[in-house]
Amino acid sequence: MVTKLKDTKRLAMAERLADLKAFQNLIISKDQKLIDACPDEEVRKRLQNMLEDDQKNLGIIEAVIVQYGIQAEPSAATKIFIPQFEQMMSGNEFTYYQKLIYHELMKHGQAMSGIVIHKAAQKVGADIEVAIGPLNTVNFEGRAHQEQLKRILEMDVVGGHIPKEEFTMFSAIDNNYSHEQKDPMASEFKAAKSKVQQEMPA
């Protein structure tokens, strides 16, 4: 029974790692699209640096999966969410500023997922903890990127649009996502918005 439980946990960990890789690929895709559409040279340079970090971190995640030794497919929820998110973000419903907001939220979610995986590895076994260890670098850089994106959102070149654009954003979400998907997304957006507004200079 104990062995079966450990095997179940290890399989669940493999699925979480597959999710992490899938979302890292999504982040890299969004990095590139934001760079291509960026209206400001300084912001473009910052995003380019993030892209290079994210590509390096994808390599780390792939190496961790190899070291872990169990291959798995991303979860069913991830397979549904990613193409829907890509379709939504590729359309014209959202402005560049709004897409940056969601990119920041994606970075936050990715960093938190990595932290949860690392903590779970500590409970599964010492060998797993060692295999997962390199994710600390990915998690750290993800959190750093999140803070950089918050600073970018404060810049005049992309900022100042929250009040008039929220209705468009939430209307698009309402049309493209289920009730179960919308609740956590709305909560995360409001929390991110509140933080950005609190940090903005008066």
Key terms for this structure?
202 residues, mainly alpha, 8 helices, disordered N terminus
Summarize it.
The chain has helices at about 1-35, 40-70, 75-90, 95-125, 125-130, 135-155, 160-175, 180-200. It has about 200 residues and is mainly α.
Topology, please?
Elements: H1 2-37, H2 41-68, H3 76-90, H4 96-124, H5 126-132, H6 135-154, H7 162-176, H8 179-199
Helix pairs in contact: 1-2, 1-4, 2-6, 4-5, 4-6, 4-8, 7-8
Overview of the molecule:
With 202 residues, the protein is an all-alpha fold. Helix content is 85%, strand content 0%. It is built from eight helices and no strands. The protein has helices spanning 2-37, 41-68, 76-90, 96-124, 126-132, 135-154, 162-176, 179-199. The N and C termini lie far apart (60 Å). Residues 1-5 and 161-171 have low confidence and may be disordered.
Q: Could you tell me the strand content as a percent range? A: under 5%
Order of helices and strands: HHHHHHHH
Tertiary shape:
globular
Main β-sheet: number of strands, strand sense, barrel status?
none
**Subunit arrangement of the protein:** single chain
Q: Helix/strand-derived class?
A: mainly alpha
Query: How many β-strands, per DSSP?
Result: 0
Mean pLDDT across all residues, rounded? 80
